[in-house]
Amino acid sequence: MRLYDTLTRSPVELPPPPGPIGIYWCGPTVYQRIHVGNGYAVTVLPLWLKRWLEASGYETKLVVNVTDINDKIYDAAPGASAELAAEATRWYVEDTDRLGLGRPDVEPTAVETVTEQIATIGELVDRGFAYESDGDVYFRVARFADYGRLSGQRPDAVEEQEPNPRKEDPRDFALWKANKPGEDTSWPSPWGLGRPGWHIECSVMAHKHLGDDFEIHGGGLDLVFPHHENEIAQSRSLGRGFARIWMHNGMLQFAGEEMHKSVGNDVTLQQALDRWGRETLLVFFLTGHWRKPLDYSDVTLEAAAARAERFRDVFRGASEPAADDAWERFSTALDDDFNTPAALAIMHEWRDHELLLRALAIFGLEALAEDEEAPAELVELAERRIEARSTRDFDEADRLRARIEGAGWDVRDEAGGYRLVRRR
Ligand SMILES: [Zn+2]
User: How many whole angstroms separate alpha carbon 307 and alpha carbon 280?
Assistant: First the structure.
């Protein structure tokens, strides 16, 4: 299997199974219910990848962190950030559980890793890669020759981050931030009371659970700079290989705009699941290549609902054997940079129930094979409709159909009878 790597800007081959494949994926910052786009970025994509690797014979360990110390949380709940983070973590677990894809192997939090973060910052200071300034600690970007490589910036022309007169160099970034008024959480450290910066949290959680070297580090395209650039600098300065492959997913777009709260198009994962259901939402995510932007709209979601219904229809019909190379074609599509739209197109060709179920199961879509039984009162209406039609009372038959549809079901006439199908 090969995956496109942002760092080398080329596809990189994974070692042969069983690996092991260690994966670190940047998880949510917990201060509100997560966006539907974030649901894809932090849950669907990494869990699908894990499930496919395991179906291919790999051993995997997936770590998705929870960022529970961050400026966004302090800003969202001045004086009560810890309570908000705890509540938003529960929302995150509740909403992503509804996707039915299982959970990552480890879900570390920044709070539980503060001790290790302080130790790592101390090591960076001791080795001259970082310096203390007024209770803050900054990473000295000039000391890391490869800085800027991930985001494709020349080291001497890197964009300034976190403008601050306490820094030696505008490119430097904070590893530790002294406690400020209004910030209700802080920890003692050799540099005084404070809290870790966001970037060091991830470097340390990845190292704690996956060691010096691991295969894949992933996250949204919006994390390339500065977050992941800084993670590489921190970790590699200490002689760690860190991640070998950097995966960055494209952003969900809402009417052509990136999905961000600021432009007023925020749809939460909870709202998306309530409105479309998990099967339609998952099929929708399958239609996009993970590296490309994907348009979230009524039109694209309706199309996904229709695709889901096509799969259900396959299971309502008779199973027909697929071509001998069917699974191989499917597998080749996923092994080539995890091309889910290509795999989806192949799945739509199949009428082989067993094969299709096997493929759907990788994406958590087994439920498409189960036809829901209609409630008894609707079956009775459908029977009366057949009777009405047999006596050519078409007005009554139409009224009965309307009542069935009003209850959220369709009645389909078929050779030898009818079928009740729930509307999705
Ligand atoms: Zn991260």
Answer: 8
Sequence-ordered list of residues with C-beta below 8 angstroms from that of 313, at least 6 positions apart, any chain:
none
Dist. CA 27 → ligand 1 center (Å):
7
Distance from Cα 180 to the centre of ligand 1, integer Å: 23
Q: Return the H-helix or E-strand segment holding 181.
A: none
- pTM of the entire structure? 0.89
Q: In terms of Cα–Cα distance, which of 286, 287, 280 is closest to 301?
A: 280
Q: Over 80: is that where the pLDDT of 235 sits?
A: yes
CA of 202 to the centre of ligand 1 (A): 5
Per-residue pLDDT tens digits for 161-185: 888 899 999 999 999 999 998 899 9
pLDDT tens digit string along 85-113?
Answer: 999 999 999 999 999 999 999 999 999 99
- Its sign, for the CA torsion 283, 97, 219, 335, is negative
In the prediction, which pLDDT does 247 show? 98
Q: Tens digits of per-residue pLDDT, 311-353? A: 999 998 899 999 999 999 999 999 999 999 999 999 999 999 9
How many Å lie between the centroid of ligand 1 and the Cα of residue 213? 16
Q: What are the C-alpha distances in Å from 25 to residues 44, 106, 149, 259, 263?
A: 11, 11, 20, 20, 26
Q: Is 342 exposed, middle or buried (0-12, 13-18, 19+ CB in 10 A)?
A: middle
* pLDDT band, very low/low/confident/very high, at 118 (cuts 50, 70, 90): very high
Distance CA 100, CA 247 (A): 23
pLDDT tier, 160 (very low <50, low <70, confident <90, very high otherwise) = confident
Secondary structure class of 423 (helix, strand, coil): coil
If you measure from the C-alpha of residue 411 to the centroid of ligand 1, how many angstroms do you get, rounded to a whole number? 50
Report how far residue 25's alpha carbon sits from residue 39's, in angstroms, rounded to the nearest whole number.
Answer: 13
CB-based contact 391:400 (threshold 8 Å): no
Q: 165-192 burial string, b = 16+ CB within 10 Å, else e?
A: eebeeebbbbbbbbeeeebeeebebebe
